[in-house]
Design brief:
Length: 230
């Protein structure tokens, strides 16, 4: 299928499979996939390693903003697609830990952190032909994206998927902790002041509670055919 050099923005709740879907889209249509959440996770991992987040979850904002002046977070392409780096260190595994997941939403409410991430996302966006997933891509980062998708699914199903994924990676998660974390992130992400998670007016909703990856790919092919008839 031939499609022009557009931007596809995928937003939605935590663990709705946004990144898996975006990766499949990238593969099928020859697009570059960019995971905006990975950049927020890198900032959070760095803050944790520098001791800038206390036991009570309190963030030393001033010190974090100082760190952002020299922090180098970026993506590098590798055999598994693109991977997140802090400086020359690959951090894909570490940024997916429950510890980072527990602190990333509060970190991402800080306006200067959002500006830091947005600057990097805009840089990539200039190249076009990208599919990017996050919480505010269609509403704030790329409001002119040609295709906007808003993903949702039943929370129990989402938690089960995340739980299975962590098990497969050899971790030993607690189901309730996984469910609590995603509900808490949904709440914080939807209620923060700066560019909260919300459905763009021109976004198409995709509820994938009962959908397979094949179903989702049929759905997007049909959407693209409708928007860009051959
Ligand atoms: O997509 P993810 O679960 O890896 O994202 C982690 C967190 O980063 C998410 O809970 C909120 C924040 N985030 C955001 O605020 N805006 C984005 N565009 C992407 C992620």
């Amino acid at each position: 299928m031939n499609i022009p050099d557009i931007i596809i923005a995928i937003d939605g709740y935590s663990s709705t499979g946004k990144s898996s879907f975006a990766k499949l889209i990238a593969k099928e249509f020859g697009f570059t996939y960019l995971d905006s959440g990975a950049l927020y996770r890198c900032v959070t991992l760095h803050a944790l390693e520098k001791g800038l987040i206390g036991e009570d979850g309190q963030i030393d904002k001033e010190a974090l903003l100082e760190e952002l002046k020299t922090l180098d977070v970026h993506f590098e392409s590798g055999p598994q697609g693109s991977a997140a780096y802090i400086g020359d260190r690959p951090v894909e595994g570490e940024i997916r830990s429950l510890r980072v997941s527990e602190h990333v939403s509060p970190v991402s409410t800080i306006p200067e952190v959002r500006a830091f991430v947005d600057a990097r996302l805009h840089e990539f966006g200039r190249k076009g032909r990208i599919v990017m997933d996050g919480r505010d891509i269609g509403t704030s980062v790329f409001p002119n994206a040609e295709i906007k998708i808003f993903m949702t699914a039943d929370p129990q199903v989402r938690a089960q998927r995340r739980f299975d994924e962590m098990k497969a990676k050899g971790q030993d998660p607690d189901f309730q902790a996984v469910l609590d974390n995603l509900l808490e992130r949904d709440y914080i992400d939807s209620h923060r002041e700066v560019s909260p998670l919300s459905q763009a007016e021109d976004a198409v909703v995709l509820d994938n509670t009962y959908m397979t990856f094949d179903d989702q790919m049929r759905w997007i092919r049909q959407l693209i055919e409708e928007r860009f008839p051959a």
